[in-house]
Design a protein that fits this description.
Strand order of the largest sheet: 2-1-6-5-4-3
Strand content: 5-15%
Radius of gyration: 47 Å
Order of helices and strands: HHHHEHHHEEEEEHHH
Number of helices: 10
Length: about 250
């Protein structure tokens, strides 16, 4: 009986030592690092903010939202977005968006995106015209100019004058600002007419024809006159000969 008790105590002691060892090993194991966060989803940020349903719809329809996901994941320059509210779109002339081609819709959305992160303080030092993802910022194309006055950030496009009315999101890589007007680029809403074709050179055919036409006293006309006189003389000579013959 005594031997059984000793065996039981030994077994329990071994189990206790085993559990203590396992607990110490688990406690010493390093915790797993959290999974790296994915790229920021711009449309979800705008959905959470509310009042940007039209801009979100345009971003999705043009696939620009998917492009932004890739750019935020693969660039160190960051991105700045000027997001117009639904009220901003309501001030456009009825049917404006429907009248745009697919390419123009892409350009319109891209015109609201700057391929650089801009904090509110950096607006004071930007170089105008600011280049957007729409492309050429030259005169008559897609110029975007930003000026500041105190805490106010003003935006002009040549057609639109507005200001940043609030910060929706910023994290050092992505900045999203609210604007209360749709930024209208000149290239889409006021395209310049094509340059007129150069006037054709004046025709010189008539002058050449006059210069090349023979005068009344040219040799050709003179030869015709001589031939006519000769023929008249021959006729007169023949008639005279007949009269003389008849009179004999």
């Amino acid at each position: 009986m005594m031997i059984m008790k000793q065996h039981l105590i030994f077994t329990l002691s071994s189990l206790l030592l085993f559990f203590l060892h396992c607990s110490r090993t688990l406690a010493q194991a390093p915790a797993q690092a959290p999974a790296p966060p994915g790229p920021t989803n711009v449309t979800k940020i705008l959905e959470k903010a509310g009042q940007f349903t039209i801009f979100i719809r345009l971003m999705k329809a043009t696939q620009v939202s998917n492009q932004l996901l890739g750019q935020l994941n693969n660039t160190n320059n960051g991105i700045t977005i000027f997001a117009p509210t639904d009220n901003a779109f309501s001030t456009l002339k009825s049917g404006t968006l429907n009248s745009l081609t697919d390419e123009q819709k892409v350009e319109l959305v891209q015109f609201h995106i700057v391929p650089t992160y801009l904090s509110s303080s950096q607006f004071q030092t930007v170089s105008n015209p600011l280049k957007t993802q729409a492309g050429d910022s030259g005169d008559g194309k897609f110029p975007l100019n930003i000026t500041t006055s105190g805490n106010s950030v003003n935006i002009t496009t040549g057609l639109t004058n507005t200001s940043v009315s609030g910060t929706i999101y910023t994290d050092g890589q992505l900045a999203v600002y609210q604007v209360d007007k749709v930024l209208q680029p000149l290239q889409i809403f006021a395209p310049r007419p094509p340059a007129p074709a150069p006037a054709p050179a004046k025709s010189k055919k008539k002058a050449s024809a006059v210069a090349d036409s023979p005068d009344d006293d040219t040799p050709a006309d003179n030869s015709k006159a001589v031939s006519l006189i000769t023929m008249q003389n021959e006729v007169l000579f023949g008639v005279s000969a007949i009269i003389i013959a008849l009179s004999l």
